[in-house]
Design brief:
Blueprint lengths: L19 E13 L3 E8 L2 E8 L5 H6 L5 E10 L14 E12 L16 H6 L1 H4 L3 H23 L3 E2 L17 E3 L7 E3 L5 H9 L4 E10 L10 E11 L3 H19 L3 E2 L5 E4 H8 L12 E3 L12 H8 L3 E7 L7 H13 L6 E7 L3 E4 L8 H11 L6 E7 L1 H18 L7 E2 L1 E5 L4 E3 L6 E3 L26 E6 L2 E8 L4 H10 L4 H7 L1 H7 L6 E4 L3 H8 L30 H6 L9
Parallel strand pairs: 3-5, 6-9, 11-18, 12-19
Antiparallel strand pairs: 1-2, 1-4, 2-3, 4-5, 7-8, 9-10, 10-24, 13-14, 14-17, 15-16, 15-17, 19-22, 20-21, 22-23, 23-24
Helix pairs in contact: 5-14, 13-14
Length: 594
C-alpha cells in the first residue's frame, strides 16, 4: 500500500462515504469559520475539501500552515449537506473530516498566488514557472498538450506511419532562419547546427525506402518571439510520404485534424473537406496567405474604376497612373453606423503607417449615390460598376485603399480583422480550415531586385517537367501548400523535387551554381541521384494546434517551460556564461567589448 495516499484528490465521491482514506497534495485554499477550518487539498487530479474542528489538537498548527504547503491528510469521507454541494468539481458531494496531518513539504512565502488565474507580469510567471504551472488553467493546458501528442501518435500509427528520430546535431543549412550553432570539441573550428526542421533527413528517409514517416520533432530557430511563435525551439508533427501527390497529403491531414479537433474541442468544424484557396486569390480577397475564413469580409480590386473619366477622385487617379492599385473592403448594412465608427477605422489605418482608408456608403433615393467624405467624386455609373465588382448593395460601406500592391494587401488584410472585430462578425465557436495552394516558385527581392525562392527551394514545380518553360520564372507555380485555421498558419508543406538535374536548373535561377548546390546540400543531392521516389509531406506545429484547442492567444500558455521575448530562460538563467576551461576545450576565444 502506498504510504502517501489511498486515493487522489479527484477520486472521492459518495460511494466512499464512511471510508478511512489518506490524501496527499498542496493546500490550495483555506477558509476559517471560527470553530471549523476548511481547506482545499489539490493534486494533479483535482480538489478535495477537507475540514477540521477546533476541538482537534492539530487545529492550531494546521491553521498556521501557509498555502502551497504539501501535506498528507488522513480522515473520514462524509457527505456534504445539499446546500454546500459543489457541482464544479468531481468531489463536490463529499468532504473529508481530518484526523491526522503530516507535513511533507514546507514552502517559502509565495511570489504569486497559485489558486487564482489572475494575470501576473511575465517576468514573475517565467522565473517561477513551476508555481505558474500549478495554476488550474495552465496546468490543464499542459495536460491537454500531452493528450494531443498521444492522440496524434496513435492516429499516425493507425494510418500506417512509422515513427523515426532524426539527428539533433547536424550541418548548417540555409532554410530561412538563423541556425543555433554548436562548437565541435573533436573538430576544432567547426560547428554543428541544431535542425531548423528535419527537412533533408525526412526526404532521405523516403529515399531509403521507408514509405510513411512521422515524428514529434523538436526544431530550433534563432528567431524573435511572437504571440504564435516561441523563440528558440518548438515542436512539429513532421511527416513525409512516398509515391504521393498533393491531394494524398491533404487527405491524411484532413482525416487527422477532423478527429483531433473533434476530440479535444466542442467547437464546430466548418468544413471537413478543407477549403482550397490559391495563393493569388488569398492575397486578393483576404490580403494575407493566412486568411481567417470565419470573417465574411472580402477584398475586391477597383483599380480599373479609377481610369474612368466620370470618376473625379484625382489623388487616387494620379497614383493609379503611376502604377499603384486600388482595392476595397465592403461592410454590409452599415449605413446606420455613427460617423465615429468610420472615422475610427480611418484613424486606425493612419496609425498603421498608411495615409488612411477613404470611405463612402451607398444610398438609393431617385438614383444610386454615395454618402461620405469621398462619395461626391463618383458618378452613378461608376458606383454601379463598383457594386458589380465588389458585390456591394445599397446600405453597404466601401473602404478604399490605394498604393503599392504589397502595402494595400497588408493594410486591407489587417483592416479585415479590425473591422470584423468592431462589428463582431467572428463566430468564436468555429474552426475554419483552409489549404492555401499554388504558391509562386520565385519572387523578386524588393531591395536587390534579384529572383529568389518564395517558399521552399526543394519543392516540385508545376507543369510538364520534361518541357518546363523556365523563361519567365516569376510565373512558375510550385506544389507548395499551407494549412491555416482561424487565421493561424499551422504548417507549410510541399511535394518535393526528387530530380537532381531539375534541382540544379531551379537553383541556378535563384543564383546558385551547381557547385553551390553540391556543397550546401551534398547529402541530399547525392542521395537523390541513386533512385529517389516521388515524395511529399508537411509539418503542422504542435504548439499552435494546442493553442487553438486551448483557446489561447499566446503560445507561452501551452508551452511548459518557455523563454521570454529576449530568448532567456529566467528560471534556469539561460543563456549563461561558461568557464574559461570550457572555452579552451572548444578552441574558442571571446572578444571583450570595450
Amino acid at each position: 500500500m502506498n504510504k502517501y495516499r489511498t486515493h487522489t484528490c479527484g477520486d472521492l465521491n459518495l460511494k466512499h462515504k464512511g471510508s478511512e482514506i489518506a490524501l496527499s497534495g498542496w493546500i490550495n485554499k483555506k477558509r476559517d469559520h471560527g470553530n471549523l477550518l476548511f481547506l482545499d487539498l489539490r493534486d494533479n487530479y483535482g480538489l478535495t475539501q477537507c475540514v477540521i474542528d477546533k476541538s482537534n489538537s492539530i487545529f492550531k498548527n494546521l491553521e498556521k500552515l501557509p498555502l502551497e504547503t504539501v501535506i498528507k491528510v488522513v480522515g473520514t469521507v462524509v457527505e456534504r449537506t445539499k446546500e454546500t454541494i459543489n457541482k464544479n468539481i468531481n468531489t463536490g458531494e463529499i468532504e473529508v473530516l481530518i484526523n491526522k496531518v503530516e507535513i511533507l513539504g514546507a514552502t517559502k512565502e509565495l511570489p504569486m498566488p497559485v489558486f487564482s488565474d489572475q494575470e501576473y507580469a511575465e517576468e514573475i510567471r517565467l522565473k517561477y514557472r513551476f508555481l505558474d504551472l500549478r495554476r488550474k488553467k495552465i496546468h490543464q493546458n499542459i495536460i491537454l498538450r500531452s493528450k494531443v501528442i498521444s492522440f496524434i501518435r496513435s492516429e499516425m500509427q493507425n494510418l500506417g506511419f512509422l515513427e523515426f528520430q532524426t539527428p539533433i546535431l547536424t550541418s548548417s543549412s540555409p532554410e530561412g532562419a538563423r541556425d543555433f550553432l554548436v562548437p565541435s570539441r573533436l573538430n576544432p573550428g567547426k560547428f554543428y547546427a541544431l535542425p531548423q526542421a528535419p527537412q533533408q533527413f525526412k526526404q532521405l528517409i523516403m529515399v531509403s525506402g521507408f514509405d510513411k514517416y512521422f515524428q514529434i520533432a523538436p526544431c530550433f530557430r534563432d528567431e524573435d518571439a511572437r504571440a504564435d511563435r516561441s523563440p528558440g525551439e518548438f515542436y512539429q508533427l513532421d511527416l513525409e510520404m512516398s509515391f504521393v501527390e498533393q491531394e494524398d497529403v491533404f487527405n491524411i491531414i484532413e482525416k487527422l485534424f477532423v478527429k483531433l479537433f473533434r476530440k479535444f474541442s466542442n467547437k464546430k468544424i466548418l468544413n471537413e473537406i478543407f477549403t482550397r484557396i490559391t495563393y493569388s486569390d488569398a492575397m486578393l480577397k483576404y490580403g494575407t496567405d493566412k486568411p481567417d475564413l470565419r470573417n465574411p469580409l472580402q477584398i475586391s480590386d477597383l483599380t480599373e474604376i479609377f481610369k474612368r473619366e466620370d470618376v473625379k477622385f484625382e489623388i487616387f487617379k494620379k497614383l493609379v497612373k503611376s502604377g499603384c492599385i486600388v482595392r476595397c473592403l465592403v461592410t454590409k448594412n452599415t449605413k446606420e453606423k455613427p460617423r465615429s465608427f468610420f472615422d475610427g477605422i480611418d484613424n486606425w489605418a493612419k496609425e498603421q503607417g498608411s495615409s488612411g482608408l477613404a470611405y463612402f456608403t451607398l444610398e438609393k433615393n431617385d438614383k444610386i449615390s454615395a454618402k461620405g467624405p469621398v462619395g461626391k467624386f463618383f458618378s452613378e455609373e461608376s458606383l454601379k460598376e463598383i457594386m458589380n465588382l465588389s458585390k456591394a448593395e445599397t446600405g453597404d460601406t466601401i473602404f478604399l485603399s490605394c498604393g503599392k500592391k504589397v502595402e494595400v494587401e497588408k493594410l486591407l488584410g489587417q483592416a479585415r480583422d479590425k473591422i470584423a472585430d468592431e462589428l463582431k462578425l467572428i463566430d468564436e465557436n468555429l474552426f475554419s480550415f483552409c489549404w492555401v495552394v499554388d504558391y509562386p516558385m520565385y519572387e523578386l527581392d524588393e531591395i536587390s531586385k534579384k529572383i529568389k525562392f518564395s517558399h521552399n527551394p526543394f519543392s516540385m514545380p508545376q507543369g510538364d517537367l520534361k518541357n518546363l518553360d523556365l523563361s519567365d520564372p516569376l510565373n512558375l507555380k510550385a506544389y507548395q501548400y499551407d494549412i491555416v485555421c482561424n487565421g493561424v498558419e499551422l504548417s507549410s508543406g510541399a511535394i518535393r523535387n526528387h530530380i537532381p538535374e531539375l534541382m540544379y536548373k531551379l537553383f541556378e535561377i535563384a543564383g546558385y551554381s551547381k557547385t553551390d548546390v553540391q556543397q550546401k546540400f551534398s547529402g541530399m543531392i547525392n542521395a537523390l541521384s541513386y533512385g529517389a521516389p516521388p515524395h511529399g509531406g508537411i509539418a503542422p506545429g504542435i504548439d499552435r494546434i494546442v493553442m487553438l484547442l486551448a483557446d489561447e492567444k499566446n503560445i507561452r500558455e501551452v508551452t511548459m517551460f518557455p523563454m521570454n521575448q529576449n530568448a532567456q530562460d529566467l528560471m534556469m538563467n539561460a543563456p549563461s556564461s561558461v568557464s574559461d576551461e570550457q572555452l579552451k576545450e572548444l578552441n574558442i576565444n571571446l572578444k571583450k567589448k570595450n
